[in-house]
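Hey, I'm writing a tutorial for new members on how sequence and structure tokens pair up, and I'd like a real worked example in the thread rather than a made-up one. If someone can provide the structure for the chain below, I'll link this post from the tutorial.
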Amino acid sequence: MRAAWRAVEKRRLTLEVQGLRAALHNWQGIEALVLGKSPAMAEVRKKILRLADTSVSVLITGETGTGKELIARSLHEFGARRDKHFVALNCGGLPEQIFESELFGHEAGAIKKRVGKIEWAHGGTLFLDEIETMPVSLQIKMLRVLQERTVERLGANEPISVDCRIIAASKADLMQLSSEGAFRADLLYRLNVGQIELPPLRERREDVPLLFEHFVLAAARRFGQPAPIVSASQLSELMTHAWRGNVRELQNVADRFVLGLTGDSLLSPGGNASRGGTLAEQLAYFERMLIEDMLRRRNGNVAEASVELGMPKKTLYHKLRQLKIASRDVAGEESELDRSPSGGE
């Protein structure tokens, strides 16, 4: 009986994966580039299409690994500037003098004449990643470029007209940095005409299977390997993992999976590894992870979490006791559960 159940489950997973792969093959346009079935990603795609044909500056925010450069490229590819250069520059890790030369270029002298990134993006798009790391002195110069649409190479006095769209990305809260004097408020207002916020992967878990299949197929093509199919326990592992590295971490797991480097567990030891055992045990683990995640997102507010999870508050209190979820595990401070002596409504 158990062997028959495993065969049925394997067949179901195979058909499900085939459905995902067919969808990936048939999708076109923005849906094929910015993947995701979640409402959050549907909203991101709407914003991209709304802003793509405009010339306004756009600020993309989100945690590390959420795919900010992909969104910037999508804004370029679906806009009127698609036939011109898309120029990307990571603002982090460059010494200020080199950064300035990269951005603005320099005239011939002791070193060879160089066209800067801003000039090279003329007619197209300039993407400034990790904008929060740009030195304040260069923020002033960047503000002038945005205001006057001209750039001066280092060692030159002649302004050069430029017409490039600026897209910036940040994993930090620029408003907070501005209040601390680490980022100029006037530059922030210039950059933040349009804003696209990317949700972390843990807040759109319904997108995990689709994204994973996309990365598996891409890795299989890249490495010349067959595209394997995940097991039920591996899928459970993917759905319950915290994904602190977001989409970038998921892609890394898919690469290792295709190369046969993962074994039965897709994730490295110490992470949210797959829980073996009976179906009931695996479902309980999955349920616990979803409830804990929702309570974290709602700062321990049981009433709000119950609405988001679609269950009565009394039922959620029962689940918290049943799964032994303590408030300190889910919110880091006293939660509504602590204030309810009976655990009821």
